Amino acid sequence: MLSEISRRLDAVLQWVLIFLMISLTVIVVVAVIFRKFDASLSWYDEVASINLAWITYYGAALAALRRQHIGFDSVILAVPPAFRVAAVLIAEVLVIGFFIVMAWAGLEVLDVLEGETLVSLTWVPIQVTQSVIPIGAILFIVAELLSAPAYFKAVMSGHSTEHPDIDFDSSEGDARS
């Protein structure tokens, strides 16, 4: 069941990212064409920046789901097997705790920004553009939770998800190439 949810979330995030990257490309190309004809678009910089931020947040969630985000498998695998469970659990609690705080702070930011709009597109509420902060944080938490069982199993058996070409001996914690 978790693998099916994970697979579907992976597909949704991929399509969101494809859409965002295509839209950013179109925005940049259109802006360059308009600038070439001395008719610069007033909204280009603001919208492109927001689009790039959205790509970053949704891309981070996809990377977390695939366990390809920044991590420290080598450190966890260097811990003696008897303590590895605790190390993995502490690491997961810290990461999820950070993103809980980020989601909460993101919601607080949305409250502060109520009634504000973009400078160049006054009909677009800033709350919409900044909603990516709590949404991205929640997606990251979901991704961590969905990928945790497979990650836990791999680390407990001495396999690195970051460096699959390196085999770690689960009894000694040292790398073998």
Which class of secondary structure composition applies to the elements?
Answer: mainly alpha
**Describe the biggest sheet?**
2 strands, antiparallel
- Span between termini: 35 Å
Write down the Rg.
21 Å
Low-pLDDT parts are 170-177
Total helical segments? 6
Q: Sum up the overall morphology in one term.
A: elongated
Strand content: under 5%
The strands making up the biggest β-sheet line up spatially as 1-2
Please provide the ordered H/E string of secondary-structure elements: HHHHHHEE
Overall mean pLDDT stands at: 88
Question: What's the β-strand tally?
Answer: 2
Share of residues in helices: over 70%
Topology:
Blueprint: H1 2-36, H2 44-65, H3 73-78, H4 81-112, H5 126-130, H6 132-156, E1 167-168, E2 175-176
Antiparallel strand pairs: 1-2
Helix pairs in contact: 1-2, 2-6, 4-6
